Amino acid sequence: MKAPLSWLREYADIPADTSIATLTDAFIRAGVEVDGVQAGTDVTGPVVVGRVLAVQPEKQKNGKTINWCQVDVGPEHNVDGDGVDGGPGRGIVCGAHNFAAGDHVVVALPGSVLAGGFAISSRKTYGHVSDGMICSSTELGLPDDGTDGIIVLGNAAEIGAEAMPLLGADDVIFELEVTPDMPHCLSIRGLAREVAQALDVPFTDPVSEHHEPVDGTVPVRLDDPRGTRFVAARVTGFDPSRPSPDWLKRRVVASGVRSISLAVDITNFVMMELGQPLHGYDGATLQGAIVVRAAKPGEKLTTLDDQVRTLSPDDLVIADDSGAIGLAGVMGGAKTELSDTTTEVVIEAAAFESASISRTSRGQKLPSEASRRFERGVDPGASYAAALRAARLLAELGGGALDPAVTVVGEVPTPPSTTIDAGLSEAILGMPVDTETVIRSLTGAGIEVTQDGDRLTVTPPTWRPDLRDPYDYVEEVGQKVGLDKIVGIIPPAPGGRGLTRAQRGRRAVVTALATTGLVELLTFPFAAEADLDKLAVPADDPRRRFVRLANPLAETAPCLRTTMLPGLLAAAGRNFSRGLDDLALFEIGSVYRAKPGAPAAPMPPVDRRPTDEEWGQFAAALPDQPRHIGVLLSGNWVPQNWNTPAEPVTWRHAMGVVDTLAEALGVTLERRRGAQVPWHPGRCAEVVLNGEVVGHAGELHPNVIAEFALSQGAAAVELDLDAILAGVPGPGTIAPLSAFPVAKEDVALVVDADVPSAAVEAALRSGAGELLESIHLFDIYVGEQIPAGKKSLAYALRFRAIGRTLKDAEAIAARDAAVAAAGAACGAVLRS
């Protein structure tokens, strides 16, 4: 929305010395964003009004035709030139052809500098000395007026007068971004009201005429409730050949709308001024009554853009006896379009249901200035005044006559009243706001306020449909008083609180992995079933329980992820494409798995808090969404150096990540042989905590490695971080340190090859008793000295007593007890 300052001043008594910065601040405080300010142009020097005395077309050798003109620029600026007839004035060469002898034009005389620093001087061109330039809007740095050529002024402009003030070049134009909750600000009327209140200056409302329903000479019917009000005014004897006066064209162009013709410019002018979209019909083409109705299935309409559109009953149309003649609130039809022969104009000013106009505009892919306003909300109380304003301008400027019998169909709805506590604004905003200030702020916004003690009954104006409940009025008061006046007070932090155990645990994991050399990622949580197809995940796998989004960002990823691996693999691909081959990536995030047979979530009303039963239904419908950690390793763990070979990633590094995570959290994570897609079936470990499987780690399947171009031996880890954090032990006691010597005992045990080392370690630990301080697996051997199908596991046992020196016999007895426990649990025997 563009708003010229001169237009705002017609309704808001803005002081002449008000700075642009002050006005910008006033808009911002009113809730309107200022995108830019155009303050005049950079044109300097003599730019005056001239009258074309003679035009002589001359065809050049290059095929171009130029006009050799003689222009009268006033006694002060005229010279005896070598123009067409050799008379007084100035001879000027011009390449435009949209003017004729007798027209008043804008002339830049030698010594002037036009937009972009283009200096004007007398110079010889096309065989003549051109003593100036006849200018277009672009050359003067003005908004494009839609004219294909130079500016042609009305003949009332005084010859020799300065042209830039006449063109409004000294005006200030604000480029504003109006939010959807302030539809009244899509008009000069609404913006002037907000500025006047912000500056505390008088405001004159241009809408002062209202009318009750009445039958006029234009018959109108509302056959669909989505059409709530319709005003039709008739102008006869209109002269379509009359041009738009300069002031009208300047206002329309300055508002960002192209000047087209007198009738169209008037409807656009009134729409920008009052916020009420208008449409003009050629009265001679109307057949019967104007009807607002739903479109018939498959009904066709050719709109003003010459597009044939197929309509549906969801579309609201304007029709007559011949059929649809316009898309209500969006665009008119070509059948009743104003033309060069129109002498009878019927002006429409209507109000329609916002949602209906929005659906039609989007469904037909036909946005317009009218639909932009209707879908946000148009003031139904301004429709009569807007129709009358446009009709009077048509009669005045187009030489027609206004039919006094104006048709008005439909009532202006009565806005709902609300009773609020006078102290509510102060209580909610947290700053002093007395009752007088509340009343002044609301009444300045056009709100009717009635006071009864500490209670205020407020009724919004017809242009403020956003004011519905007490807190809407509190927001309005806060905006008018100034939200910047709210004093920021930091609430004191209650003692004894801080990060939760889960938060501390997650931070410890991130720190430990980052310190190890892994890089954390944040990927989108969206996925597709094809992602799991690439990983060969079986159809009955829980990871196939997708949660499908109702409105996905992309149809290629319509679901929420059920595993962290596809996102990490996609990130690896992007890194590979950029030449980064050695990767150690991790991500912490939620996965989402639908509950089998879960009911659909209810849709509660918005006017109350959900009941306990509804909360229970929400919980039942929500998917399981535990927080997982995913790790992907590919390439070299240690790159090749001049004195050391490269260390490629293997499954052992994935196990090292699990150990790092366990150490950071202070938990014991067991590993046992497992089988899980997409890991290698012989090199995959289940990660177990307190007897429950919390994830998997190991080398990826060769097919997956090939599918995603990973390095040979690439590994991955995916763990249920929430489940692990839930198993983290709480605060305990620190065991006392012993100053007495340790007793070292090493044992080598032979077990079956498929016995996990973790199981042997657990048996040794349970059998050794409380004297055992630590246990460490330091060797695994399979060879000639070990029977086939067996392996040798060597453990270092460390024993220590608190408060005394441990005797050799005690250490040996503890060692033997540990070996006996391993033999009973795992069939382990001492290696001879």
Structural notes for this entry:
This protein is α+β, with helices and mostly antiparallel strands and 832 residues long. 26% of the residues lie in helices and 27% in strands. Helix 2 packs across helix 4, helix 5 packs across helix 6 and helix 20 packs across helix 21. The longest helix has 19 residues. The chain starts with a strand and ends with a strand.
Mean pLDDT across residues:
91
What is the fold named in CATH at topology level of the largest domain?
Answer: BirA Bifunctional Protein, domain 2
Helix content: 25-40%
Poorly predicted runs: none
What fraction of residues sit in β-strands?
25-35%
Instruction: Return the CATH class of the largest domain.
Output: Alpha Beta
Secondary-structure-derived class: alpha+beta
Number of domains: 6
Report the strand count.
45
User: What overall form do the CA principal axes indicate?
Assistant: elongated
CATH structural architecture of the largest domain = 2-Layer Sandwich
Distance between the termini: 92 Å
Can you say what the CATH homologous superfamily of the largest domain is? Bira Bifunctional Protein, Domain 2
Radius of gyration: 41 Å
- Sheet with the most strands? 7 strands, antiparallel
Number of helices: 21
